[in-house]
Design a protein that fits this description.
Chain lengths: 327, 255
């Protein structure tokens, strides 16, 4: 196990380096010269040369990358061109909001998709199964932003149940305040604000995971040890939950972990629709304004976060299933 | 099942293929005499959605094409040559996979200045990894076959062996991946346009129409519903196509 972990960690490092390199190069691909952009057309050549030197852009590409790398390792991602503040600061402020959405979406996914998949598997080829499968297929095909817009249409505008934008007091802060003796009203408001966006985010995942649970369960149910359990006279429910489900869930857990990356991608769109002040909206806004330090920092941050989660998922899967370690 | 799928697919995809040149965009005050309503500029929604289909399909197929070509080349080389090449290639794949696809596409489009062209390139650069992996596994399996050995024994150069002998066998599963990929590409293009970073107006794109609808959600709810439905139906069609093809290629099927 230790060997496997070491190997995976070793592979991890060049990947991260590669990520940094690609983002760095991509941003440098931008046509146009930042010095000209900053100074406008009236700048003289001398001023342009000075700014270029100040920005460090006159050094070789390799040197620039080296400097960037060193800065990143120190936690310095540069400053936003438009907002002036430190990029890392901006990211860290926006991060909890996105995490709220992602965590809520994951919870919703598990709570909805697993029972749904189990149900569909247990009642395979019945009406319930067909309905669930159809729903899952639609869910996978439906674009995220359409669901969000429809949800706003239905729940906010028509029914007026839930707010359609903004984060309200925020789930994490309000929970923290609650523990410190604050009012539960804030938590409720935060939840109401968070419900639609996280549901939107989770929708595609629910469909995917439900399908997966269903096929995993179907495979496991046929296996011999399930027959044994039944032959022993165990109640059907116990058979399903205790024996079949536990083993079927193994690949599912992996997929759920991997969904984190997809959720972060979806968060970009969801946050834009719901005006949710998270990392996704930060990056999209930065892209619209061509605020490259923020774009760079944000994308790298997300990529590293996703890589870490994937690494953890891989390691935990190897922990649970010893066969993988020898691959 | 297959027949049902085929029947489902034809009507789904057909209306989105051909363009309607006799319908032109007309500027009229918003009203509901048009089948799907008009948008905030008075343009007929139905026409825009139909034209949007052309845009989406064109971008998606080109993007899938680019992704497939890159993926096949890279994956085949990695699988066939193995060793260091394989190691490097797989690291490259991992690097690209670390980014959530939409995010990467967004960044690329931002860098290249948003347009239909840049979206196509960006999507191609994002989705190639899937094809690379599939081809690589396929090649790894097929290169152990005897006729490959025979080809090498006869003195064929390795590119020749690879392309003429091994590759044709691996392309089967590719078609399945490609059809599902089309669905993904359509959604991604729409997402980018939705964010304003895809196809630029006045060219219609389903995502962009949806976005406009969002702004006017109170007055004109129908503006958003139809392009979204169009996207979903198209993606569904591609998914079903992929499923059907996969079943057709399944060697376990009793023909």
């Amino acid at each position: 196990m230790l060997q496997y972990t070491a190997r995976r960690l070793l592979l991890f490092i060049p990947v991260i380096l590669g990520v940094l390199l690609i983002v760095f190069l991509t941003v440098r691909l931008v046509p146009g010269d930042p010095a000209t952009v900053l100074l406008g057309p009236e700048g003289t050549d001398a001023e342009r040369a000075r700014i270029t030197h100040l920005l460090g852009l006159d050094k070789s590409l390799a040197t620039q990358f080296g400097i960037y790398l060193r800065n990143v390792l120190r936690g310095d991602f540069g400053r936003s061109i438009f907002l002036g503040s430190d990029v890392l600061e901006l990211i860290l402020i926006a991060l909890p909001a996105t995490l709220e959405l992602a965590v809520l979406a994951l919870i919703i996914t598990v709570m909805v998709a697993v029972p749904l998949g189990v149900l569909a598997a247990v009642r395979a080829n019945t009406l319930i199964d067909y309905a669930a499968t159809l729903l899952a297929l639609l869910g996978v095909s439906m674009p995220l932003f359409w669901f969000g817009v429809l949800a706003i249409l239905l729940f906010s505008l028509q029914l007026g149940w839930l707010p359609s934008f903004g984060r309200g007091p925020g789930l994490f802060p309000s929970l923290g305040a609650l523990l410190a003796g604050g009012s539960p009203g804030d938590v409720w408001s935060a939840l109401k604000h968070a419900l639609l966006p996280s549901l939107t985010l989770a929708f595609g995942s629910i469909a995917l995971v439900a399908r997966l649970v269903r096929s995993a369960m179907l495979e496991v149910i046929r296996l011999d040890y399930v027959r044994t359990a039944r032959a022993k006279g165990l109640a059907e429910r116990k058979v399903i939950n205790k024996h079949a489900l536990r083993n079927a869930l193994l690949p599912v857990v992996t997929v759920i972990g991997l969904q984190f990356g997809t959720l972060l991608g979806g968060a970009v769109i969801t946050e834009t629709i719901f005006a949710w002040p998270g990392l996704g909206r930060l990056i999209v806004g930065a892209i619209s304004q061509r605020d490259f330090p923020v774009i760079q920092g944000g994308v790298i941050f997300v990529a590293i976060a996703v890589s870490i989660v994937n690494l953890l998922v891989d390691l935990s899967y190897a922990l649970i299933n010893p066969k993988i370690r020898y691959a | 099942m297959m027949v049902v799928l085929a029947a489902l697919l034809a009507p789904l995809i057909a209306p989105y293929g051909p363009d309607q040149r006799n319908i032109r965009q007309r500027f009229q005050p918003p009203s509901q005499e048009h089948l799907l309503g008009t948008d905030n500029f008075g343009r007929d929604s139905l026409t825009r959605i139909l034209y949007g289909a052309r845009v989406s399909l064109r971008v998606a197929s080109l993007a899938v094409g680019i992704a497939a070509v890159i993926g096949i080349l890279v994956g085949a080389l990695a699988g066939y040559l193995g060793g260091v090449v394989d190691l490097i290639v797989m690291r490259l794949v991992d690097i690209f996979l670390a980014f959530p696809p939409i995010l990467l596409a967004l960044t690329l489009v931002a860098v290249l200045n948003p347009s239909a062209f840049s979206v196509t390139i960006a999507l191609g650069m994002v989705y190639w990894t899937g094809y690379a992996r599939v081809i690589r596994s396929s090649v790894l399996v097929w290169k152990e076959e005897e006729f490959v050995e025979a080809s090498r024994a006869l003195g064929a150069s390795w590119p020749r062996t690879l392309f003429k002998h091994v590759l044709p066998h691996t392309l089967g599963p590719m078609i399945v991946v490609a059809s599902v990929g089309m669905g993904n590409a359509v959604t991604a293009e729409a997402a980018l346009s939705f964010l304003g970073l895809g196809v630029q107006p006045p060219t219609p794109s389903w995502g962009a129409i949806l976005n406009t609808g969002l702004q006017f959600l109170r007055q004109t709810p129908y503006l958003s519903t139809f392009p979204g439905a169009a996207i979903m139906i198209t993606v569904l069609g591609f998914n079903l196509l992929g499923d059907g093809l996969r079943d057709a290629f399944d060697p376990r099927r009793v023909a």
